[in-house]
Amino acid sequence: MNDSPADAPELFTWEFATDPYPAYAWLREHSPVHRTALPSGVEAWLVTRYEDARQALADTRLSKNPAHHDEPAHAKGKTGIPGERKAELMTHLLNIDPPDHTRLRRLVSKAFTPRRVAEFAPRVQELTDHLIDNFIEEGSADLIHDFAFPLPIYAICDLLGVPREDQDDFRDWAGMMIRHGGGPRGGVARSVKKMRGYLAELIHRKRENPGEDLISGLIRASDHGEHLTENEAAAMAFILLFAGFETTVNLIGNGVYALLRNPEQRERLQRSLDAGESGLLETGIEELLRYDGPVELATWRFATEPLTLGGQRIAAGDPVLVVLAAADRDPERFTDPDTLDLARRDNQHLGYGHGIHYCLGAPLARLEGQAALATLLRRLPDLRLAVEPTDLRWRGGLIMRGLRTLPVEFGPGL
Ligand code: HEM
């Protein structure tokens, strides 16, 4: 049913990372369930239409467990598929299926509640202001390095209960993971190892001496008499850090960039914030996620049996990648999908996924995204790009897409 796949645009190039949307439009139209070789050499299916994507995300025949991957044994561990190496920290929500997933998710949901996140709002505001204070006198900044990058890491560390004096270590480890996520593995492996050692010790300490933080909450959480083991608690803390970090960096980076490129929308938001309204900020964050969300491809899924998706036969063991960023620009689902409309109402985007793996951290991401954008616009009302858009470099991984730097200028701020 595919048109000639020979005409398919080249994926995973530099141009693609800069602007993948024309390639996604081609795929949606000509080859909506598309077999391709990933940079690692692994063959996978890319799902780009909204309806197929939503269906795939909820399909129980698509497992998250990398053990279902049908790769020749010699390639195992070299594919870049997270979790393929059986590391302790990798037995986390994004790599497991029910019933284990159901049990772990229920336990973590008892500790990571919307109420805990809501109570955290003043701290997020304080962090946001503090980061802006650090550069406001300069008249210029790199909003990725100075703002979008540190905000989520300090926020999650605080929430988990990592003492302030240790948080810069986390910042360095996380920086290593972001910088080299798709590249040399050595530094990343070392950072993961250090993080694992640190988390194991912290969990041990919190067990002896619990507090009000999320790690203590994870240790305390019980369901029908069941608790998380120390290993499970460490894997959970790790996935909260890992899943909640680069995503939020890119939500802020891609979001600010989209606003700077759409001055009418930005002015509208600024006016509504000046008037003390929050409605446009709330719909606006959802729209920024749809328009240029941080997660390009939902994480891996593997067919546990042969199945048909969007008219395409998929064999047992085949990897399937749901391209959220392509689905969220599907004209069959969204009116004027390539237009940024902060007031968009009919906006059931897939930026946070769908189904049982729907983003657990969505309330925290919304809180951070809203605080970041509102505070930037309020305190730096004439914020502008300091370089031409063509000079910006994008980090296009397999999973995440975001700016490497976002140089901005501004007059005296508030
Ligand atoms: C899952 C997106 C922020 C924790 C997911 C998934 C997506 C996503 C698409 C589903 C992946 C899949 O089905 O394969 C985002 C975006 C964020 C964000 C766009 C920011 C804008 C966060 C934050 C946290 C977090 C701040 C926590 C602190 C998680 C966890 C899962 C998850 C634990 C796994 C849930 C499960 O498997 O049951 N996220 N996320 N995320 N996210 Fe987020």
TrEMBL record:
PANTHER family: CYTOCHROME P450 YJIB-RELATED, P450, PUTATIVE (EUROFUNG)-RELATED. This is Cytochrome P450. Belongs to the cytochrome P450 family. InterPro entries: Cyt_P450, Cyt_P450_B, Cyt_P450_sf. It holds the Pfam family p450. Residues 62-82 are annotated as: Disordered.
